[in-house]
TrEMBL record:
Catalytic reaction list: adenosine(34) in tRNA + H2O + H(+) = inosine(34) in tRNA + NH4(+)
Lineage of source species: Bacteria, Pseudomonadati, Bacteroidota, Sphingobacteriia, Sphingobacteriales
Gene name of this polypeptide: tadA
Alphabetically ordered keywords of this record: Hydrolase, Metal-binding, tRNA processing, Zinc
Alphabetical list of Pfam families matching this protein: dCMP_cyt_deam_1
Residue ranges crossing the lipid bilayer per the database entry: none
Function: Catalyzes the deamination of adenosine to inosine at the wobble position 34 of tRNA(Arg2).
InterPro entries, per database record: CMP_dCMP_dom, Cytidine_deaminase-like, tRNA_aden_deaminase
Note describing how the cofactor binds: Binds 1 zinc ion per subunit.
Gene Ontology MF terms in the entry: tRNA-specific adenosine-34 deaminase activity; zinc ion binding
EC number: 3.5.4.33
Protein name, per record: tRNA-specific adenosine deaminase
Binding site for Zn(2+): 64, 94, 97
Amino acid sequence: MKYINFEDAGDAVSDEIYMREALKEAQKALEQDEVPIGAVIVCNGKIIGRGHNLTERLNDVTAHAEMQAFTAAANYLGGKYLLDCTLYVTIEPCVMCAGAAYWTQITRIVFGAIDKKRGFSGFGRDLLHPKTTVISGVLGNECAALVTSFFRNKRNK
Ligand SMILES: [Zn+2]
């Protein structure tokens, strides 16, 4: 697996555009009092899957934004492999979502903020498929701020 910094990425502009779409999904989660994490999957310049965290509403710990987006994208493509696809997600995927990403063989993962506690990279990058490229830090501050303020508000209630 290649691990490149955002600064080195050639398609930085489109990465920001799609990360803004993932942030819109995160906003939808926030409006439903869910931890605000959002994801989109892009294939050939088209968004083919969207998702936001729904673990409270669905009473399902697996209902992470990425899982919703994987399912939506696979439905769109009519196949389980997400080749030539990029996952944009506002927060670094957890181990479960990295594992699911492995099974999809997705080409790229672009995430916003690092999750030091639950992010997959703390558990070893081998969780992802060897073909998968990862870019981190795209609109990272905005992505992190949503989650930070969500938990701050929770504590103050
Ligand atoms: Zn996850």
